[in-house]
Design brief:
alpha+beta; homotrimer
Chain lengths: ~140, ~140, ~140
């Protein structure tokens, strides 16, 4: 699909705020709230080479499964997003390409671990009231 | 208080720019300019378990006192803010919840120290002309 | 020149988006696209004490020259920008002062190197259609 640069500044802001709420929800463990930012058939692929989870219900289940591994590890993660580029696609959806860096802190450790460095590839469905994710694919810089 | 999601995109931008000026002022040691971003009875608690400083004059004095410990340490700090979430409160003020990561550099050390990872909890008083801080409380991820 | 705080929120957003496209282009090695964000006589000084490159053609050549040193080093860089402060100058141009932190990843190394910490000093030429850089000077915190 041919993409055209986005001109609506208003949308640019709405996307920033959408991401802020979404990632604070994820980092605070509110997986249902995170999953609800996807469309009914929205897809989420957080690890290359795996099948994406489809739909909010499965995305939420996948997040619970993924975080099982941290059950005995009280790590807190903060997702930093930066340099959001938006392009409108011919079908009216919006492609978003964003840098993401994850900051990890464990209780008592003042200095966080900062990894990995990612690029988030989103397709957004936007209407006047809300933004939803049609798909999210995470690319990892150390795997490319 | 019940909070409602903020819809004004204009305000979202103004808050971003407010933070940018405020934190560049702090990082450059312009403590008076930082303190002047608080209301007359604004409160600033930068360390958990301590009494907050109240009002611009005391906030400025507190910043000078705090930086005394760095008198012989030429560290430069840069505050990175990210993922700003705004919610309107019933009294018209705005609650802002923001990630903050501090980057510290000493002369000659190319690689900065990156710590700590924080969440900033602000209450903002907004009118057409300006934004002021009614209160700021810093949470530290490694202490929670 | 006396600077006045910028009031147009719309411009603040446009500058954010401009930076996002520009730095994604640089990080992906699209040096021509990066160079084209400068005016015909735009200047780019990426290293203190060196002569700035003047005009898109020389800026692009300088970027190719600079990256020669990484020919055998498959490092990927991501430029994180934060805390953008904009001020209008009397001649209608816009001064932009921005924090920048560079994240560096090599294949297989999950944990990135994070350095250096910089402040970007830009003069922007803005009209209704586009933003261009009249000048960019990079300051490095560890050299000051």
């Amino acid at each position: 699909m041919t993409a055209t640069p986005l001109t609506s500044t208003d949308l640019y802001l709405r996307v920033q705020h959408f991401y802020a709420r979404q990632m604070q929800a994820l980092d605070e463990g509110r997986f249902g709230e995170y999953a609800a930012t996807f469309t009914g058939d929205g897809t989420f692929q957080h690890t290359p080479g795996t099948e994406p989870a489809v739909g909010p219900e499965r995305i939420e289940a996948e997040l619970h499964r993924f975080h099982e591994r941290f059950r005995d590890d009280p790590v807190r993660r903060r997702h930093y997003f930066n340099q959001i580029v938006l392009d409108e696609l011919p079908d009216g959806s919006v492609r978003s390409t964003v840098y993401a860096l994850i900051v990890r802190v464990r209780p008592g450790d003042r200095v966080p671990e900062v990894w990995p460095s990612c690029v988030v590839h989103d397709i957004l469905e936007v209407n006047d009231d809300r933004i939803l994710l049609r798909s999210r694919v995470i690319g990892y810089d150390h795997l490319e």
